[in-house]
Amino acid sequence: MDLQLNWRFQTFGELTNDELYAILRLRSEVFVLEQRCCFLDMDNKDQLCYHLSGYLGDKIMAFSRIVPAGISYEYPSIGRIAVSNQGRGQGFGIELLHVSIEKLESLYGKTPIRIGAQLYLKKFYESFGFRQSGDVYLEDEIEHIEMTRPE
Question: Looking at residue 42, what is its pLDDT?
């Protein structure tokens, strides 16, 4: 896969103040403003995770965090998956998921991966091998499902 974005993969401690600010701003733009979710994004998991940020020039376009097993789920997880509204329709979400899975497997090997997905994105995640593994539930008034990608 030809990469369009410049990827940075860092622990929380490796993030600069500017990088952390850009990540939190992107997550707020997507989850709080666009999706109108009133929730505390800073959940004390970031410090334990790896952070994958995709940049186009000096602008962050995509982000996910790789969560170790035992923090959110029994398996490692990919969370806080976000693409800037300025970067949508350009394949950045597809690239983000490919790189996220690759980075997770470089850390933990071939292992099941669990995610909490917005229901309307079910087919998107299925294209990466994820399968529904739980019932529909509401989170911040948005329908979600747990999905698992077998090893």
Answer: 86
DSSP summary character for residue 30: I
98 is a domain residue: yes
Q: What is the rounded distance in angstroms from the CA atom of residue 83 to the CA atom of residue 92?
A: 7
Pairing of strands 6-11, 50-56: antiparallel
pTM, to two decimals: 0.94
Is position 150 within any domain? no
Task: Count how many domains the chain has.
Answer: 1
Full residue range of the structural domain in which residue 66 is found: 6-109
User: Is residue 119 domain-resident?
Assistant: no
Residue numbers of the chain with a pLDDT score lower than 50: none
- 73 within 8 A of 124, measured Cβ to Cβ: no
Q: Would you state the pLDDT for residue 72?
A: 95
Measure the CA dihedral 50/52/34/32, to 10°. Answer: 20
